[in-house]
Amino acid sequence: MKQSDIKTPYYLIDENLIIKNLEILKSVSDKTGAKILLAQKAFSMYSLYPLIGKYLAGTTASSLFEAKLGHEEMPGTETHIYAPAYSDEDFSEIIKICDHIVFNSFSQWNKYKNIVSGTGIECGIRINPEYSEIETDIYNPCFKGSRMGVTLRNFEHSNLDGISGLHFHTMCEQNSDVLWRTVQKVDEKFGKYIKNMKWINMGGGHHITREDYDIELLCKSINYFSDKYGVAVYLEPGEAVALNAGYLTSSVMDIINNEIDIAILDTSAACHMPDVLEMPYRPNVIDAGNPGEYPYTYRLAGPTCLAGDIIGDYSFKEPLKPGDKITFCDMAIYTTVKNNTFNGINLPSIVLRHQNGDTELIKTFGYQDFKSRL
Question: Which positions does UniProt annotate for substrate binding (predicted)?
Answer without folding.
Answer: 239, 275
